[in-house]
Structures are given as C-alpha cells and as structure tokens.
Amino acid sequence: MFTSIILAAGMGTRMKSAMPKVLHRVCGKPLCKWVIDASKTAGADKTVTVIGHCADLVKAELSGETEFALQAEQKGTGHAVIQAMDHIKAAKGNIVILNGDTPLITAEMIQNAVEYHASSGNRATVITAVLPDAAGYGRIVRGADGGVLRIVEQKDARDEEKKIREVNSGMYVFDAQSLAYALGEIKPNNAQGEYYLTDTLEILLAAGKKVGAYTIEDNDEIRGINDRLQLSEAEKIMQARINAYHMKNGVTMRIPESIYIEAGVEIGNDTEIGSNVTLKNGTKIGSGCVVGQGSTLDNAVIKDNVNILNSVIINSTVGEHTTVGPFAYIRPDCTVGEHVKVGDFVELKNSTIDDGTKISHLTYIGDSDVGKNVNFGCGTVTVNYDGKKKYRTTIGDDSFIGCNTNLVSPVNVGKGAYIAAGSTITDDIPEGTLSIARARQINKAEWKKDRRK
Ligand code: UD1
Ligand code: CA
Asked: Does the annotation count 361 as an active-site position?
C-alpha cells in the first residue's frame, strides 16, 4: 500500500491544443487516467493529482477517480509535490510520484519499484532508464561506487554530465517523512528558477539517508507525451498491447495492426475481428462472433455467435445468432433480438426488434417496436416524423410487410397481418388482416394511339 501523487499541472504547450495535455486520449482513455489506473492496480490506496492548467476541465473529467491538489502557478516539480502534501498529512509509508503524461506506464513496473525501494532500505528511490538519446531529460549522476549522487537537469548540466545516458524518469518512491523533510529544504537556485523535485535526492543524502535508483528495462514505460507525434506513437504501442491481450484471450485478428480497440472493451473467445474494425466506449462482444472488416461498434453489446459485416452499431444491443450487414447502421437505443437478420442498407433507430425477424434490405425502422418473426420486404420505411414530432410504430408477431411499404406513425400493425407491396399505411391494421393501401392499377390500351392524334 502506498499513496501516489500524479503531476499534471503543466501547460503541455507543444500539443497546440485548447485542451489540457493530460486529457488527450490514448486508446480512448485520457493520458492521466492511464497513470491513475496503473497506480491503483499497483496498490495505491490514495491518489492525489496535482492540477493547474485548465484545472476545471481536468477535475470534471477525472472526478471520483482521484483527489486533486491545485497548483495555481507552476513553479516547478518540487513546488507541485508540496501542494499535494497538504492532502496526505497523515500519510505513513511510501509515496510514489508519477507524471500525468506517461500513459504506457504499467502497474507491474510501479509494483517492482515499490518492492525494490522497500527491500533496499532506501528513503528515496528514483526510477531511471538508460536511453540511446538522453537529450531533454535530467541525468543521473553516480559516484565512484556506483551510488546515486544527484540528478542534474539538462539546462544545468556541464558538458561531461550531458554525456550521461541514464535519465530521470520523473517517477520516484519516497518514504513519506523523508519526502516531507526534503521538500522543506529545496530552493529555486537553478537555470529555470524553479523548485526542483530532483534536488530532494541530494538533500536526503546530505542528511545521511539512503538513496538509490531503480532502472527499468522497457523504456516505453516512461515515454512522456509532449506533442501529437508522440501521442500517435504511444497510441500505436498501446494498440499493440490491447490487441495482444485479446489475442491471448482467444480472439482471432488476422491483421491486428489495422484494428483499433479502446481500453475497457470486452471480447469473448473464438470471436474473430476483421481488419479496419473500430471497437469503442466499453463495447462488449460475446464468443463465437465475427466482426467483419470495416465495422465500428461504439458502446455496443453483442451477444454470442453474432455475425457483423461492414456495419456501424452505436449504443445498442444485438442478440445471439443475429446477422448484421453488410452496410447496416444501427443507431442509438436499439435492442435487436436473437436470430434476427438485419441486412444490407438497413437503418434502425430507437427500436426493439424481437427474435426471428428478418429485415433483409433497404429499410428504415425508427421509433418502432417490432414483434417476433416479422418479415420486412425490401424498402420498408417507418414514417416516424411529421416535421414537428416523432411517433412510434408497433408491428405484431408474424406479420408480413410487403415491399415498399410506408408505415405512417403512430400506427399499429396487428399480429399476423399482411400488407400489400407499395402500401402507405396510415390506419391501424387488425390482427390477421390483409391491408392494401394503394391505387388500383389501370391499363390503358388506347392511350398511346390517342396521344399521337
Ligand atoms: C522533469 C525532471 C527531469 C526528468 C523529466 C522526466 C525536474 C526538475 N526535472 O523535467 O529530471 O528527466 O521530468 O520527464 O523535476 N509539473 C507540475 N507543476 C510544475 C511543473 C511540472 O505539475 O510546476 C508537472 C508537469 O505537468 C509534468 C511533470 O510535472 O507532468 C514534469 O514536468 P516537466 O516540466 O515536463 O519536467 P521536465 O522539465 O521535463
Ligand atoms: Ca520543464
């Protein structure tokens, strides 16, 4: 158990965004939320996020996930941590300090660092990495015995020190009391005139406390996002991680690089996800499904053995053994039953479609309640809008809707009713009745001759 402090008050200027950096998303989740979640999974019993730039937006997005400390003016990383310490006066044990812009951090790495810190008897442990190009980072200066002496910022470093490739990740584990003591001692005596958190290591060493470093292997863990290029690189890495997770759970992906799945999506085993598929917003897919090429599922719930091809499904549920598409559009608030067929160029909106119903082609069903085993001919339209209000259509079980029918709502079609092709239905149809609502055909044999005269 430990408390974590997440630094997220900075500007993020290089994003060139009206939105604060930490709210930009990787695989659907804000940068900062990845860090909060990793720290909770690693065992944090409390997290305090230091906010400043666009504080209200960050608060609104993350409310309930973390406590907040306000750093009104950004006077450095040490100053930021001081603001958070007010929230953890009673804190005993360890404090883990993380950055809000490193979404690729894992819970495992945090746990390992905390364990290393505890077993080494350190009062402070800085998490470090050896990078091929260390430019921009604070460098870890070690003594002749290999022990950490201090951290020097790029802007304050001498030429010798700039050659060091071991860098400060900006993440640390501190014993709470030692951190509180060291924060009280830091001074803004540096190139940037800031209160550097990094100075705490030297301060603790001077006070005779043990300080060390935990060096990570996977440098992605500490990758900070500063601009949109780095955002896209992080997205690529996260996408590969998420897709690998699903494949390990028994999901088939033939071209995983083309598949975009957000964090929090669930997929059952023996489901196949085709290329260029997008799965968003907590979509849940059962077992034995095929989500074919080019589909987008947004907050959809798909039960087992469903077959979807080239379709879009938003905020809706689809029952077992149903087929959808190609080119179907299921808009919000639909509940589609089992063994239903939603065929090509079919649009559904705010409707329930009960089991066994077939809507094979070129049909719009909006604001409707459709019973079981209904058959829709090609080109059925529910006329649900009169220019001011929307009305519902109800269609009873086992009815047969002929091709090119307009159902002018509000209207009820009784169970087992038949509608002749080309009808425009404006009145309710009683159970088991055939309804024909179109002009009779007239064949005029003499018409062509008459016109010539
Ligand atoms: C910091 C470290 C550097 C390390 C690097 C890793 C210091 C002095 N330097 O440098 O050794 O290699 O991180 O990325 O700590 N923040 C606040 N309030 C502030 C200043 C910063 O909340 O007043 C937050 C930022 O939003 C960011 C984090 O702290 O999430 C790091 O700040 P940043 O300015 O990026 O630090 P660096 O200069 O990169
Ligand atoms: Ca800086």
From this structure: yes
